[in-house]
Amino acid sequence: MRHTRWSRRRLLAAAGIGVTGSALAPFLPRSVAEAATQPKRLVLITNGQGTDMTRWRPMGTETDFTLSYALEPLAAYQSRMLVLDGIDNEAAIRGPGTGHFGQGTMWTGVEVPTGTVRPDEMLGWPTAASIDTIIGERIGGETKFPAYYWGTWPIATDGDNQGPNGICHYRTGTPDAAQPINPQLNPASAFDTLFDGVMGDDPAIAARIRAERKSVIDLVNGELTRVRTEMPDVDRARFDAHLDSLRELEKRISQVTAACEVPMRPDDYSESQVHDYNLVHVFTRLQFELMRHALLCDLTRVACFDWPHSEGYGNYMVEEGYARNFGSIHTLAHTMSYDVVGDTVPSDQDRAIAREDMANLQNWRSKMLATELLDLLPADVLDNTLLVWASEMSEGGTHSNRNVPIVMVQGSSFGAFTAGRYLRWGSYDPISNYSEYTGGQPMNKLLVSICQAMGLADVDAVGDTTISTGPLEELA
Description:
globular, 13 helices, alpha/beta
């Protein structure tokens, strides 16, 4: 049993008198904790190399629109969606690290500066934490992990194709460089880290969990009674009401079982298998299963998943039901738009096939989010979750950091934004990286909106304040 230290502040919070919400929720089965406010959860999904924007954009108006082929698998969630068309990864545009290096700017809101991390490009790490860290440090005090990170190969990690061309998430480091966070690529290793010491729904184990949680209730009950004697009379009536609620929970706790379901441990995969381009679809499913259970078990409330950066491959697409496999996503994107790719001048047919393949890839990603994550989350978890899916660039062939594709899915009880909308800003032409362009909104504003939606009402700026401050007002 893991023992928990109860400070005076936390005891008052448990009674509803402190500045925080109920601190008992992590110790109570979900069916008991229903009476308390469900915690908000954030899921950040990232893919590299953008997409085919011509097949990503929905058709229609703000509230009456049809999802594109790339997003169609998410149609069941359209009433909960916000499709954002016109958000600029401005920190990448301003800094020396543009294009692929926008992965280092998109969740941090700061430039990738000059440095020695990528000596060929003379680029370093961004200098600020990403919003997953900012939010996780504020809301993750009751969970095992303030934030957790999954991914699939190939993805840049610190020391392995390292650099801000593929690492999206950062902790506060030195004034000159944030600390890059490597996603866990091996599902078995992720399982061992996440579920170490976490019990599942075996009847004997559930009985023990009930006993342990009841002992926590007994402890808290006794401590709250002691605290009651120390407080002014004016507070005691409200305090007594909370004590009555606590006693009611004590009566009900023996009638319920643990809601945390520990999944089967994934098979052990060798390092070479984890780095196999052909297994991205396998690992995506395994990682999403672990993410679902980590959220259900309240092991983390900030969950991040990174699909491959620009060096990914599509060698599994036929197996997933699509017309063709393809090689490098990077080469595919260049074929969409570049005059010359390597030593080859792509034909019109080559370009059309490349765009179809890129759209198929985004369609598959949408399908994975729908069928392997959102559809399988318990309703009470999904209803209080915000999912944000973005890429560092828009049109993959032009490598533009303008108008990056962003999809948000908001749970029905999340309540921060007005969902069921397709929002457009600016005059971006996805085919031409050099066309005159005005009117986009900086990603930094969206980062502020996400922070505020997760309860960080005091956050009015994320990243470079010379880019922008304040939230993206149109989301409300």
